[in-house]
Amino acid sequence: MLNADPHMAMPPLKKSSLGIPIEEDSELRRGPWTLEEDTLLIHYITRHGEGRWNMLAKSAGLKRTGKSCRLRWLNYLKPDIKRGNLTPQEQLLILELHSKWGNRWSKIARHLPGRTDNEIKNYWRTRVQKRARQVSVDDGKGFVEAVRCFWMPRLLRKVDETSSFKGMMSSQSSVPSELLSCMDPSLSTIKHSSEKSSSVTCPTSFANISEQTELTSPSTYGHSQMVNEACNSGISGYDMESISAVGFYEESNWISDEMTDALWNIDEMMFRELEEIGINTII
DNA sequence: AACCACGGCAACCGCCAATAT
DNA sequence: CATATTGGCGGTTGCCGTGGT
Q1: What is the pLDDT of residues A33-77, one digit of tens each?
Q2: Residue A121 CA to C11 C1' — how many Å?
Q3: Beta carbon of A32 within 7 Å of strand C?
Q4: Mind listing the pLDDT tens digit for each residue in A92-147?
Q5: Is the pTM of this model over 0.70?
Q6: Which nucleotide's C1' atom has the smallest distance to the CA of A71?
């Protein structure tokens, strides 16, 4: 445990090569930021801009390291930071991009406007990776395939189902067709399609799961293909900004807070379903 | 009501590359 | 060219809220 009391957090005194405590470092604060510190940082950056973080920290009168200031600004205070749960679309994008790039969080974050690498990393570790450990998929590659062939089609279908449900309950329409077509050109026909894409290469076990649960993979294929194309072309055609999904939520309000919460727990639902159909889990 | 276990997430750490001196 | 500084990244830690007993 680093700090018994984070509000009085002080680092252990650094020592010179002779073992003499360096006095000035003892003034550096650590731990949670206070409102006052946040205000100082925001005001300073508003007036003078970002960069030269060590100098910035001193000039702003903050008893923090430059690194700490930078982190606080980029991960929390910056005006365009989005708070709250990741949307299903964002979750899908993370799954896809991670399957391509691995733990390149900052690279992934660049394609989710308003989301930080830290947030995405936390999502992956607390939500996705936890499931990878629980579902008996030993190697990472197997898990990626599980995500691609089982998890993502479910996520896509749940997006559609849940929005249809909301439509029934509130007389609003289902997921807007424009959004669906942006997200996945084949999703709008998923309920009627029994055709399986030959382009998806799933391990037999997960292909079987899809069959058992009457899932088809065209939607996944369409999504994956889209991401592939986007990646190959510098992804400009497929980030959340370009498909305007985020803005669409805010403007059309087709997805409520409660619904977002429900969707946020989709991985929980899918995990239970995995158990129900006999996939080994460790709990 | 009290205690405990767990999950989420903000913040820190160490390393490395780029840039400045 | 060598060294120092800065910025960026991924991994890890530990506080705190919440739900279960």
Answers
A1: 888 888 888 888 888 888 888 888 888 888 888 888 888 888 888
A2: 10
A3: yes
A4: 888 888 878 877 888 888 888 888 888 888 888 887 776 666 655 544 556 656 66
A5: no
A6: B11
CATH ID of A6-77, from 1.10.20.10, 3.40.50.720, 1.10.10.60, 1.10.390.10: 1.10.10.60
Retrieve residue A63's tokens: 């008893």
The domain locations on chain A are 6-77, 88-276
Which position has the higher pLDDT, A247 or A279?
A279
What contacts 24+ positions apart, CB below 8 Å, involve A202-211? A202/A145, A202/A148, A202/A149, A203/A142, A203/A145, A203/A149, A206/A145, A206/A146, A206/A149, A206/A150, A207/A149, A209/A149, A209/A150, A209/A274, A209/A277, A209/A279, A210/A149, A210/A150, A210/A153
* Beta carbons within 10 angstroms of residue A270's beta carbon: 19
Q: What are phi and psi of A104, to 5 degrees?
A: -90, 75
- The reply to whether A283 Cβ lies less than 7 angstroms from strand C is no
Tell the residue number behind the tokens 């999504």, with chain if given: A223
CA distance A152 to A92: 7
